[in-house]
Write a structure and sequence with these properties.
mainly alpha, AhpD-like
């Protein structure tokens, strides 16, 4: 259950917190949109799978749930993370998530030598950074998981609207204070 008194009527939905102060949170929604959909080499579905692993690693129940809903809406195959090249992406992302200051040139070279571009390395770091931000907001303010059907509906709406920014705009317009 959310910790702050004014979040008690949000039905455990972090999106209500974001909508409450949409101008404050719109930039991170937009950054998440570009961090998952406008990547050099990773697909939207692959980015969602990586973000899901970051959320699990950070023990953010809300974000893990929404990432799972997005993966289902995108028909993302979690087995893709076992692909040799994506395994390297995930290992790098998890290392950045654990301790970005521990990343070395060797870590970056491992991705580059596997055929990933420098832009993809930057994309992965950005994806981890924005996912950690959401994980911190959700877990730090006490937002837990919602029913899978709710996350599936959010995921499908986001996919139908072509991304997070448009879905968030519509959510804000329809949110009740």
């Amino acid at each position: 259950m959310p910790f702050l008194s004014y979040t008690q009527n949000f039905n455990n939905n972090l999106l209500m917190l974001l909508a409450r102060d949409a101008e404050r949170y719109r930039p991170i929604v937009d950054f998440f949109d570009t961090s998952t959909r406008r990547l050099a080499e990773l697909s939207w579905a692959e980015a969602e799978l990586v973000a899901a692993e970051i959320s699990k690693n950070n023990r953010s129940e809300f974000c893990s749930g929404i990432r799972a809903g997005m993966a289902r809406a995108l028909a993302a195959d979690a087995d893709r993370l076992r692909d040799d090249r994506l395994t390297l992406v995930l290992a790098f992302a998890l290392k950045v998530n654990r301790d970005a200051s521990s990343v070395t040139q060797t870590d970056v070279d491992t991705l580059l030598n596997a055929g990933w571009s420098e832009q993809t390395v930057e994309d992965i770091v950005g994806l981890v950074a924005i996912q950690r931000l959401y994980n911190t907001l959700a877990a730090g303010l006490g937002f837990d998981a919602l029913p899978a059907a709710v996350f599936d509906a959010i995921g499908q709406d986001t996919v139908n609207k072509g991304g997070y920014s448009e879905s968030f705009r519509t959510f804000v317009e329809n949110a009740t204070p």
